[in-house]
Specification:
Number of helices of chain A: 0
Structural class of chain B: mainly beta
Distance between the termini of chain B: 37 Å
Shape of chain B: globular
Helix content of chain A: under 10%
Strand content of chain A: over 45%
Largest sheet of chain B: 6 strands, mixed
Shape of chain A: globular
Oligomer: heterodimer
Distance between the termini of chain A: 31 Å
Chain lengths: 113, 114
């Protein structure tokens, strides 16, 4: 499935680094999401963007900063992360309120050292 | 109480058997329910969704919903080794029209042994 592409696929960063995750969807959708999947924990919704406007921040620490310049692109800017932030970060897209399917990207594996 | 609960497993079944995966949810107002399959190292993919009480069949998969008991299940008939994966139950957040605002369980790992 290449409808939602994420880069990089793997990232190792130090706690003082600044990095960004990128997501692009080629499906013509108008909603984009960031989910976090940690070991032994359920997938957690982090942010929701509808028509490039943020509509939900699920109590995410400010060291995670999303950006959605248009309906096709979504970024997650990372700075001063903690080792416990190591996880799989999944981007997804959908139509805002029609249809039943969200499409996930392959994810970005993040390791904070 | 977790919003969406699943037994983490692993659930082990022999090839050709029926695998039964269960999920309970806490929000009685929930309306939309989803089953995703996630292979190791891969992203989740949608298998089925169900909105109404009763059964919904799609090939070897049957989703069952009982809103009174706040229970949703997934049956996989004629299980194959390729069905070995983690199965995630998800519930759409009540009051949300956003397709993708889902609450996930932690998943059940299914192992189908040849």
């Amino acid at each position: 499935e290449t409808g939602v592409t994420q880069t990089p696929r793997h990232l190792v960063m130090g706690m003082t680094n600044k990095k960004s995750l990128k997501c692009e969807q080629h499906l013509g959708h108008n909603a984009m999401y960031w989910y976090k999947q940690s070991a032994k924990k359920p997938l957690e919704l982090m942010f929701v963007y509808n028509f490039k406007e943020q509509t939900e921040n699920n109590s995410v620490p400010s060291r995670f900063s999303p950006e959605c310049p248009n309906s096709s692109h979504l970024f997650l800017h990372l700075h001063t992360l903690q080792p416990e932030d190591s996880a799989l970060y999944l981007c997804a897209s959908s139509q805002v309120s029609s249809g039943n399917t969200i499409y996930f990207g392959e994810g970005s594996w993040l390791t904070v050292v | 109480q977790k919003e969406v609960e699943q037994n983490s497993g692993p659930l082990s079944v022999p090839e050709g058997a029926i695998a039964s995966l269960n999920c309970t949810y806490s929000d009685r107002g929930s309306q939309s329910f989803f089953w995703y399959r996630q292979y190791s190292g891969k992203s989740p993919e949608l298998i089925m969704f169900i909105y109404s009480n009763g059964d919904k069949e799609d090939g070897r998969f049957t989703a069952q919903l009982n809103k009174a008991s706040q229970y949703v299940s997934l049956l996989i008939r004629d299980s194959q080794p390729s069905d070995s994966a983690t199965y995630l139950c998800a519930v759409r957040k009540t009051g949300s029209s956003n397709t993708g605002k889902l609450i996930f369980g932690q998943g059940t790992t299914l192992q189908v042994k040849p």
